[in-house]
Amino acid sequence: MSEPIRLIVGLGNPGPEYETTRHNAGFWLADHLADDLRATFAPEKGFFGLVAKARFEGENVLLLKPATYMNRSGQSVGALARFYKLTPEQVLVLHDELDLLPGQVKMKQGGGHAGHNGLKDIQAALGSPNFWRLRIGIGHPRSLNLAQQVADFVLHAPRREEQAEIDRVIDRCRVATPALLRGDFAAATRQLREA
Q1: Which N-terminal stretch is annotated as signal sequence (predicted)?
Q2: Does 24 show up as a binding residue in the annotation?
């Protein structure tokens, strides 16, 4: 068993104009997890975002949706992690992943940021790449036979069939979350594959 996750960060861009865009897949999952844990997001100025405080098996769990834009996510994550004295290993970041097709999900600890500006900023703020990432596949314009540029693609809503696949992945992630909150990453990985 590893250190249990104590901070879950959903990445996205704030504002109604971004709500349904692919780049906000992390926000979508964070909203569902807050519901599952019976917690409510509320603005916290000092943490530059929306924070939900939950309890899981007697332990405190924090959920965060940074209110900064994606490329400044680290400002929010760093402030919260420092205040609650959390290590990078106790942080799980939920984010959209171009290199995975809709319907695919992968979890990993550490590694690079693959050009994802949110991850890059969080890595800088935490001073370590050792946080966990739950990568929600949104596909790449090339793999989906679209002529769009990547920047344009991530700021548009998924097509209906892609959204259905992403929703299924979100449900699998919800099933695996209790194992993550217990620090049982092997069980969580199995549940992500099986569900």
Answers
A1: none
A2: no
Written as six digits, the tokens of 135 are 């990568």
Tokens 């319907």 appear where? Answer: 103
Considering only CA atoms, which of 84, 64, 86, 85 is closest in space to residue 76? 64
State which residues form the domain around 100: 7-194
Can 23 be counted among the known catalytic residues? yes
Whether 122 contacts 93, CB under 8 Å: yes
Do the domain assignments include residue 106? yes
Check whether 69 is labelled as a binding-site residue.
Answer: yes
Structural domain count, the chain: 1
Catalytic residue among 23, 95, 140, 156: 23
The response to whether 84 counts as a known ligand-binding position is no
Model confidence pLDDT, tens digit, residues 67-110: 998 899 999 999 999 999 999 999 999 999 999 999 999 999 99
